[in-house]
Design brief:
Layout lengths: L23 E3 L6 E5 L9 H11 L4
Antiparallel strand pairs: 1-2
Length: 61
């Protein structure tokens, strides 16, 4: 087992830094607040969409 809680079969995935507090970036899929700072320039997903994306792209087998 790995020491991380992000043990998905994703290739070259870079996660943005977690925000210390508001303002939070909006999720690019549902526009709900994410755990990431609003100043982050990149794709941000809320915890629900992040989970769904991980399920969708996970390796089967």
């Amino acid at each position: 087992m790995s020491d991380t809680d992000n043990d998905y079969c994703l290739i070259d995935v870079t996660r943005p830094p977690r925000a210390d507090g508001p303002p939070y970036a909006a999720c690019v899929l549902c526009q709900e607040p994410t755990e990431y700072p609003e100043s982050y320039k990149g794709i941000t997903l809320c915890p629900v969409c992040e989970w769904r994306e991980a399920e969708r792209t996970s390796c089967s087998g």
